[in-house]
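Running log. JK asked me to keep both predictions on one page so they can be read side by side. First protein, sequence followed by its tokens:
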Amino acid sequence: MGVGVSHWKLAQAVSAQGQLGVVSGTALDQVLLRRLQDGDPGGHMRCALSHFPFPAMAARVRDAWFLPGGKAANAPYPRTPSHTPDGPREVQELCVVANFVEVFLAREGHANPVGINYLEKIQLPHLASMYGAMLAGVDYVLMGAGIPLKIPGALDALSRHEPASYPLAVKGAEASDAFCATFAPLDFVEGAPPALKRPRFLAIISSNTLAATMLKRASGVVDGFIVEGPIAGGHNAPPRGKLELDAAGEPVYGERDVVDLPKLRDLGVPFWLAGGYGSPEKLREALAAGAAGVQVGTPFAFCSESGLDEIHRLRVLQDARDGKAHVFTDPLASPTSFPFKVAPVEGTMSDAAIYEARPRICDLGYLREACKAPDGTVGFRCAAEPETTFVAKGGDPSESPGRKCLCNALMANIGLGQIRNGKWVERGIITAGNDVTHLARFLPPHGLLYSAADVLAILLEGVEAAEASSSTLALQP
């Protein structure tokens, strides 16, 4: 779903119904900062901060960023230093606290499990983020968009408050290089460290090979898999083999991209199916294939508890009702080079004119590529930054055209877009799965509003009670 769409309110609503609500862990430090800068409507952020186990750290974050009454409408959100392999401390603290806040709020009001989802490609915040989520008692960690072999071991270490490291994928690195991010929990603890549980880890995969690799080579226990097909929203795994595009310019997926479910079942770990499984028929099909359940994203992304800006949400739902909703799997939009699904929505970056009018700015940097600098240190570049800057850092100029700043656009999707020069407002870019064409099934006869509970009621319709009780419906952030 992107940044902050599957936020605490949506995850709370799903978990309260007995299923697995999952919050998006992407860029939560910026999400918390901007909520506080907007005056923390409803006081939810400050309430969660008051429960953070390290009061001095919570106070530093609150005092640094909270603006009573909120910032002026045309004032920009402040910038924080970028993430680096070993800090800076203020950024790590904000990351720890932000992940705690989101999970804490999602867990309020019920006793059911809550999960958090991360993108493996956004490596620098992993350790601080997971530690913060664990301080709030997160039950599941989900991760895709990469090969998270070292995450299980990191979870083991963090659960014991031990130092943890995470190897960084650095372009141009040699075999003798050892670039990694580090995090030492006891450097942040105030007083006696609280007891932590190790959350279950679910790897998001798109192939049998990756599933087998995770079980054989992961640094700790892999508790299950989410099998995500190419029609799921957000980033998709690239097709296996040479990239081919169809007449519309979308990547072509073939038989090599289909997971062999009987072979996956033989691995002996539970799995959930994702991508186009937002219907009772597909849920029954998944259970019959041996899945523990399904992961559902798009129907929840447009429900009333979603964090998506209401204007964008209602436009997509109206298009769905009118039979016009669709998505385009854009092979260029993401600076990561992963295909990214884009729903054409008026006033967003899906409009070529709006994209061309935006100055190429990379000031959030979550999707930057780490690269080895001439002095042997880790540098960063982004294919969506100004082309001259990208090329000066060693980037291939052919990788720059068509790239979009997803970091800023996804923040804008949830009403937290940056303001530039007092007048330029960042525009969003809406992502959804192919299931966007079927959203009308969740709409009432008159109106465009439906709830997370409505989605669950429809998905579980006709599913035997015994089956339903063993299935888990996980949000796809």
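And the second, directly underneath as requested:
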Amino acid sequence: MTVPVDLAHHVRDNALEIAWADGLRVRLPVPLLRGWCPCATCQGHAPGLRFHDHGDAITLGHAEEVGAYALGLRFSDGHDSGIFSWSFLRALAEGREPQRV
């Protein structure tokens, strides 16, 4: 699995830019990340994941690395319990639907 080598929060564009070790660089809109939050509160315990639209006004308040495998994000609506693994973020970067880890 390839891992990120750089992260940048673009406030004006409301996006998180991720540069991957294999050269892929992509900007993920913050509302997209909030909508795909993988936590149990957002996704429940049913199989599969679903996108939940929280509107375009959602912004990113804070991001921090979780271990060496994921990113923890806090959104403007106060939500911060999702842990976005590198493989989860890579799926979004490639335009694929993410899977439960």
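Observation for JK regarding the second prediction: The longest helix spans residues 86-93.
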